[in-house]
UniProtKB/TrEMBL annotation:
GO molecular-function terms, A-Z: serine-type endopeptidase activity
Pfam families in UniProt: Trypsin_2
Entry keyword annotation includes Transmembrane: yes
Protein's name in the database: Trypsin-like serine protease
Keywords annotated in UniProt: Hydrolase, Membrane, Protease, Transmembrane, Transmembrane helix
Keyword Transmembrane listed: yes
Organism: Nocardioides albidus
PANTHER family registered for this protein in UniProt: SERINE PROTEASE FAMILY S1C HTRA-RELATED, SERINE PROTEASE HTRA2, MITOCHONDRIAL
GO biological process per UniProt: proteolysis
InterPro entries named in the record: Peptidase_S1_PA, Peptidase_S1_PA_chymotrypsin, Peptidase_S1C
Transmembrane segments: 75-98
Length: 347
C-alpha cells in the first residue's frame, strides 16, 4: 500500500504508508494536506502511473474553489501541464502491467512453455538515491529475462541504469535517480512461483535510454564474491516482433508490486492491441497491449504462443483526459542491435 487519504476539517490529508517513503520536490514527507485536485505518481518516478485525487467538497466550498481557479490558481491533473505538487510514493517502483482481473490462461495454454518462461524471468533489486539529494535513499525493483545461460539478462534501462541519456526526455526529469552500484538478481522458485532470495549480482553491459533497454551480466554471488562455477541458467528464446499483428496473443511475466511487493511472479495475458511506430526509434518499435502491467513489471518478459520473447514490458500509457490506460512493450526487434553489442562485450 502506497498511502491513505483521510477526511479532515477543511479538506483531506494524504498519509504515506510506503516503506520507501513519499517525496515532494525531492524531500521526504509523511503527510500532505490538500483541498483541491492533487497529482500523485505511484511507484516509478518517471514511468509510474499518475493518479488525480479529487476532494469531495460542499457546494459552497466547490464554488469558492472554482472562483479561485478563475483567478488562475491551478493544480495539475493527470497529463496536465500546469506546475503541480508531485508526490512520489517510494524512491522507485518501476513499470507496470494492468488489464483483466479474471483468471486467465497463458497464451497457447501450454504448461511447459509457460513454466520455461517463468524460470527465465528474474526479479531485479537495487539501492539508489535521488541525484539532487543523495541523502534520500531507497530500494526499488523491476524484472528481467535471462537470454543467455551464463547470466546475460535483458531488462529496461530505467531499471538497470536510470541515469542513461534519453530517459529524461522520454519520461521527464521531475525526479532523477542515480545508477545503482550493482543489481541483485533473484531467480524464480518453480515450486511456489515466488522469487528466491537474491542469488547473484549483475552489472550493466549495455544501456540505451532512448530505447529504454539494457543488458546486464551476472558477475558474482549476492555477497559480491567471484563465482566458483560456470552458470547454466534457464533462458527464454528470442523471437521476432516483425510479423506481429493486432489481435495476436501475448503473455506478460514479471514481479510487479501488486503481488506482495513483487514477491511472486505474475502471469497476465492479452492481445497486441496495435503495433506502433516510434518517431525516434523507427517502425514497429512499440507494442500496445491490454495485458495487465503494473509497477515492477518493467524489464520483464513478453512472449508469444511459442514461448519466444517478443518484447520487454516497459510502461503504461494514459490517454490524456480519459481513464483509458494500456501497457506498452518495447518490441524485441528494436532491441536486437543492443543485444548483439552486449553479447560481443560480454564474451
Amino acid at each position: 500500500m502506497h498511502g491513505r487519504v483521510d477526511p479532515v476539517p477543511g479538506g483531506w490529508t494524504y498519509t504515506n504508508l510506503s516503506n520507501e517513503g513519499t517525496f515532494q520536490d525531492g524531500r521526504r514527507i509523511t503527510t500532505r494536506a490538500f483541498n483541491e485536485r492533487l497529482g500523485l505518481r505511484l511507484g516509478h518516478p518517471v514511468a509510474g502511473p499518475e493518479l488525480t485525487l479529487v476532494p469531495i467538497l460542499s457546494a459552497a466550498e466547490e464554488e469558492r474553489r472554482i472562483a479561485r481557479r478563475r483567478l488562475g490558481k491551478r493544480l495539475a491533473i493527470l497529463g496536465g501541464v500546469a506546475a503541480a505538487l508531485l508526490l512520489v510514493a517510494g524512491v522507485l517502483g518501476l513499470a507496470f502491467v494492468v488489464g483483466r482481473d479474471d483468471p486467465v490462461k497463458p497464451a497457447g495454454d501450454d504448461t511447459d512453455v509457460l513454466e520455461a518462461a517463468k524460470a527465465a524471468t528474474v526479479k531485479i533489486t537495487a539501492e539508489s538515491h535521488l541525484l539532487d539529494d543523495p541523502s534520500s535513499t531507497g530500494t526499488y525493483h523491476g524484472s528481467g529475462s535471462i537470454i543467455r545461460s551464463d547470466g546475460l539478462i535483458l531488462t529496461n534501462a530505467h531499471v538497470a541504469a536510470p541515469e542513461s541519456p534519453g530517459l529524461e526526455e522520454k519520461y521527464g526529469d521531475d525526479v532523477r535517480i542515480a545508477d545503482p552500484d550493482y543489481l541483485l538478481i533473484s531467480l524464480t522458485d518453480g515450486m511456489t512461483d515466488t522469487n528466491a532470495p537474491a542469488s547473484y549480482r549483475a552489472r550493466v553491459v549495455q544501456a540505451d535510454g532512448e530505447l529504454d533497454v539494457a543488458v546486464v551480466q551476472i558477475y558474482a554471488d549476492e555477497d559480491g564474491k567471484e563465482l566458483d562455477d560456470e552458470l547454466h541458467l534457464p533462458t527464454v528464446p528470442i523471437g521476432s516482433s516483425g510479423d506481429l499483428r493486432a489481435g495476436d496473443s501475448v503473455t506478460v511475466l514479471g514481479f510487479p508490486a501488486v503481488a506482495g511487493d513483487g514477491k511472486s511472479i505474475t502471469v497476465t495475458t492479452g492481445v497486441i492491441s496495435t503495433v506502433l511506430d516510434d518517431p525516434d526509434l523507427g517502425p514497429r518499435s512499440e507494442l500496445d497491449t491490454d495485458a495487465r502491467i503494473a509497477p515492477g513489471n518493467s524489464g520483464g518478459t513478453a512472449i508469444n504462443d511459442d514461448g519466444e520473447l517478443i518484447g520487454i514490458p516497459t510502461s503504461l500509457f494514459a490517454d490524456e483526459g480519459t481513464t483509458v490506460t494500456s501497457g506498452r512493450i518495447r518490441s524485441i526487434d528494436a532491441a536486437k542491435d543492443l543485444i548483439d553489442e552486449a553479447e560481443k562485450e560480454a564474451d
